[in-house]
Specification:
The protein is built from 18 helices and 6 strands. The chain has about 375 residues and is α/β, with parallel strands linked by helices. The longest helix is centred in the middle third of the chain and has 21 residues.
Length: about 375
């Protein structure tokens, strides 16, 4: 591997890099970002590699002229180049929120490995050791990637994250071709290419926050409005959610529903500056919730709670599925989750076709274990 240790920090360097990458069918990438004091990840470097070379792009150096990175972003969206990454969700979110693009088409080697018997969410170092017999340097969690010049040790770590990815994918692809799961792995990786999964979902977040708390209809409506306010606010100010208002503060506000600024100021967790900036907006949100007559209080996981008899059958199916997944060398989550198994129990279906037509399991999963289940 030819490691280019000098960070690329100018337009000519990007042009030269893009020329090399554009001639490839498969490339690897990774991003390093910091998010300690912001809502959106701040990308500091992008690592890229072919089977023979690896580079680091100093994104920080382009912060005042991001347009010079457009040729590189074109590589990320080039449909003729497969982009390989490990644990890709954070990288895709970083690209989307920083540059407005996602890598496509792309494949996640962690996902690919889970279809080949290497376990679910396997780490890159462990996977490289298992598949390629190589040891890579790890241990840079919580690193400040904004420091310049980037220390030699961090350059080593950064390059190590991509230098084996192309050959790793090729090895995994051979296994996936052999077991007939390549398209399944690619399809599963593709879900992280959809920008919608990174968009705010106030009702889902509110439901998650309220899951272990009792709220009446008006309280839940207030919580949804408050979550929506916070989601807009953290994106506007680019601040962590907890810096604006943590979940417990939103729950208390939804329960008490203060009517004026004086009452609002009594809540711990809302600082004076935030009340100055958003106090009136919060009160308006609570007022909208109080006037909402069409609130439907979500059922508290009624469907997902099995009866005593169902629980015994569910335990049996989970145990069997775990054994079967191990024998098939696939992560069990790709076959069926607990809710899917419960749905199977309750639906009384008799054939694999019925399992698929009732959308209890995917066609590929049903073909593997549907009949036996």
């Amino acid at each position: 591997m030819n490691k280019h240790r000098q960070l690329i920090s100018n337009s000519p360097g990007i042009t030269e890099l893009v020329q090399v990458l554009s001639a490839c069918d498969v490339i690897a990438f990774d991003t390093e970002f910091i998010r300690d004091s912001t809502f959106f990840p701040k990308v500091e470097i992008i690592q890229l590699a072919t089977e023979k070379d690896s580079w680091i792009v100093d994104v920080q150096a382009f912060q005042n002229h991001k347009e010079e990175l457009k040729p590189l972003l074109g590589v990320f969206t080039d449909r003729n180049i497969l982009k390989v990454a490990h644990a890709i969700q954070g990288d895709q979110e970083s690209l989307l929120t920083t540059f407005g693009v996602v890598a496509s088409p792309a494949v996640d080697t962690a996902i690919a490995a889970s279809f080949c018997g290497y376990g679910d969410s396997v780490g890159l170092a462990a996977l490289v050791k298992e598949v390629l017999g190589q040891t890579i340097k790890k241990g840079h969690a919580r690193t400040n990637w904004s420091v310049r010049p980037l220390p030699d040790q961090l350059i080593d770590y950064a390059l190590a994250d991509v230098e084996y990815l192309v050959v790793l994918w090729k090895k995994l692809a051979e296994k996936l071709e052999g077991n007939g799961r390549k398209s399944w792995a690619l399809q599963t990786s593709q879900k992280y290419e959809d920008p919608k999964i990174y968009a705010p979902k106030p009702e889902e977040l509110a439901l998650k926050i309220a899951s272990s708390h009792r709220l009446d209809k008006k309280g839940f409506a207030a919580l949804v409005e408050l979550v929506q306010w916070r989601e807009l606010r953290v994106r506007e100010a680019n601040l962590p959610r907890r810096w604006v208002a943590d979940d417990n503060v939103l729950l208390d506000l939804a329960r008490v529903k203060p009517k004026d600024l004086e009452h609002l100021k009594a809540f711990r967790g809302l600082n004076k500056g935030e009340i100055r900036n958003s106090g009136q907006v919060i009160l308006e949100a609570l007022e909208r919730a109080s006037k909402n007559e069409n609130v439907v209080l979500p059922e508290r996981n009624k469907f997902e709670t099995p009866s005593e008899d169902e629980a015994q059958v569910l335990d049996l199916l989970k145990c069997y599925l775990g054994i079967k997944a191990n024998r098939l060398k696939i992560a069990s989550r790709h076959l069926a989750g607990a809710n899917q198994l419960l749905n199977l129990i309750r639906s009384k279906v008799k054939t694999v076709d019925e399992i698929i037509s009732n959308k209890i399991m995917s066609g590929m999963a049903a073909d593997l274990v549907g009949k036996e289940l």
